[in-house]
Amino acid sequence: MDVSHECSWKKVKKSRSGEKGTTNESSSDDEEHEEETMIQPTTTTTCSSHKLEAIVHRTTSLLQENLPQTRNGWTALLSSLGAILLGYEVHLQTQLSRAPRVYGQIADGPLKDIYHQLATSHDSLLHKPFRPKLFIGTRAAVASTASYLFRGPTTEYVEFREIVQMTIDGATVAIDWELPVKDTADCGDRDCLIETIRHGPISQPIVLVMHGMNNHSNYGYVRSMKRACCKRDWIAAGVNMRGCGGVALRTPRTYSGAYTADLRCVVQRLSARLAPHTPMFLVGNSLSANIVCKYLGEEGLCGTLPSCVAGGAALGNPMWMQAANTDLIMSPVLALGQKKVLLENWASLSKNNEPYFKSCVRRAIRALTLLEFDEAMAPVMARNEPVHPFAFRVGYKDAKSLRNDASSFRLARFISVPFLQLVAEDDFLIYNTFKSKLVYSISNPNVLVMETKCGGHLGWQQAIPGQSSSWADEATTDFIGAAFDAFSRRRPYNCQVDSYFSSSDDRTRFSAQPVPIRSKL
Predict the structure, then answer these.
(1) 34: which of 51, 149, 363, 370 is 20 to 30 A away, CA to CA?
(2) HEC secondary structure over 191-210
(3) Looking at the domain assignment, is residue 362 inside a domain?
(4) In a 3-state reduction of DSSP, which class is residue 493?
(5) E strand or H helix that includes residue 88
(6) Helix, strand or coil for residue 389?
(7) What is the pLDDT of residues 487-496, one digit of tens each?
(8) C-alpha distance across the termini of the chain, in Å
(9) What is the model's pLDDT at position 184?
(10) Secondary element (H or E) of residue 420
């Protein structure tokens, strides 16, 4: 008997029996309806469960009838599914493989020479299509995760670490050097080269590579960039932000996207070691890309950039630091990373007995999102004025003031050296904010913006991570090589930044207003 008919028959039968039993009793029709309403839900649930069981049984039977019964049959089926999946990946790879889109002005100056040099070479980044690796580079999340988790290529060059002390507040940062000399070289030659790096004069070009938020210079994407530079006979230096890379804080101030004084101190310290006419190049990733852009804009604004700096590159630069542009998933993750930095340096932070500072740190530890963390730490963050002499200051009024000061788009138009901005269209972390402020970059004739179809956040995987350089490494080193060539031709030529200002008062309008702090920090 059909299940639905049986259920409806039981319902009718119960209703009729109720009618027969109520002829000579005082019960009214209300009891009859009440009994029926008590039975109906159970009957309906039973019917639904029977239908579901019947559907599952039929589906299982169909699968058992159609699935292979032998090993060869299973092999053929899995091979067919694998071929379909591989065909889809190849199609997706073909759709994503293309040369980058280029934005910028080609005016008289160093960038014009660089652009023409790259345009005439068919192997340069302007003509080289980014062909993402199957199953890795074709998906933004996977490509980004691989660039962070994989340690990078095994080193074959000489490496050593140098600890540099900041002259402003006594903080220390670590510089992880990688020299274009094989590790199998004579010990005397290695020691001599290390001493030259420490004391000068350095006659080979230097490329400073900075890491992103909550990372350090031993992450895979930093090591990969350093390796690509060493292969071109340049000296690579991985600069760790304060409190990162295993170097404990010596001051109660952690790094932030607005504080450029540490980078300024490192550049000035290394520029004093360079031999005459030896260039230096700056590369930033993610948060440090914002720092590099902001630093070059501040120096270009005031005309104080050291003459040895040949240019800069920013990979995955957010440009505009706003909490509304960080999604609900990434914001707690980034906040966890920031809290990890605080806990790793708890021994140094706990030495500050000022009550208000301790309360800010405690609120930051309890923060659930990145906005809450910034709101808690903003009053005790280190910062510097954006104009010369870049005076050291402490604290912001709130997180909004911190992020407004950290946003590099305001200063991007004052960069006075060739500058490359590299971004991927599927970058889930910074693409929307970067694109909204693109006009500030291309309004400067010294800035070249390149946008790829895919790549994720610092991904650009065109091979298995660790086996070869990423597409971003090759593209950036192509630009660095052209910038070094232009550097040798343009000195003593200097870019005129005064032409960007309509009046002399424009230089001072970027000065940050002093923020009252509740107590002495």
Answers:
(1) 51
(2) HHHHHHHHHCCECCCEEEEE
(3) yes
(4) coil
(5) helix 71-96
(6) coil
(7) 988 754 443 3
(8) 84
(9) 61
(10) strand 419-424
Same domain, 388 and 434: no
On the question of pLDDT at 201 being above 80, the answer is: yes
Q: Taking a C-beta distance cutoff of 8 angstroms, is the pair 386, 274 a contact?
A: no
Residue with tokens 């019960």: 27
Mean local confidence (pLDDT), 12-26: 43
**What is the separation of C-alpha 302 from the centre of its chain, rounded to a whole number of angstroms?**
29
State CA 368 to chain mean position distance: 20
Kindly state the average pLDDT of the residues 134-142.
85
The number of helix segments (H) and strand segments (E) in the chain equals 17, 11
Task: Assess if residue 156 is contained within a domain.
Answer: yes
What span, in angstroms and rounded, lies between the C-alpha atoms of 136 and 50? Answer: 45
Do the beta carbons of residue 111 and residue 448 sit within 8 Å?
yes
Phi, psi (5° rounding) for residue 202?
A: -95, 125
User: Does some domain include residue 265?
Assistant: yes
Measured CA to CA, the distance from residue 218 to residue 226 in angstroms comes to: 10
Q: How far is CA 463 from CA 36, 93, 137, 466, in A?
A: 69, 13, 8, 8
Q: What is the CA radius of gyration of the chain?
A: 32
Whether residue 298 sits in one domain with residue 161: yes
Residue type, 374: D
Cα–Cα dist 172/165, whole Å: 4
Confidence at residue 46, expressed as pLDDT on a 0 to 100 scale: 73
Locate the DSSP E strands across 155-296: 157-165, 172-182, 206-210, 235-239, 280-285
Distance CA 72, CA 8 (A): 49
Segment 467-494, tens digit of pLDDT: 777 899 999 999 999 999 999 887 544 4
Number of residues that make up the chain: 521
Number of domains forming the structure of the chain: 2
Check residue 156 and give its pLDDT: 79
Sign of torsion, CA 280 404 426 413? Answer: negative
Q: Torsion angle of alpha carbons 303, 305, 309, 314, nearest 10°?
A: -90
Q: How many other C-beta atoms lie within 10 A of the C-beta of residue 19? A: 10
- State the Cα–Cα distance between residues 398 and 363, nearest whole angstrom: 14
238 and 215 housed in the same domain: yes
Q: Which residue has the tokens 């390796």?
A: 227
What confidence tens digit (pLDDT) does each residue in 211-260 have?
999 899 999 899 999 999 999 999 999 999 999 998 888 888 889 999 99
Does 354 lie in the same domain as 293?
A: no
Q: pLDDT tens-digit profile of 255-280? A: 999 999 999 999 999 999 999 999 99
- H-helix or E-strand spanning residue 451: strand 447-452
Closest CA to 39 of 60, 18, 22, 61: 18
Range of the domain at 105: 99-119+129-321+407-490
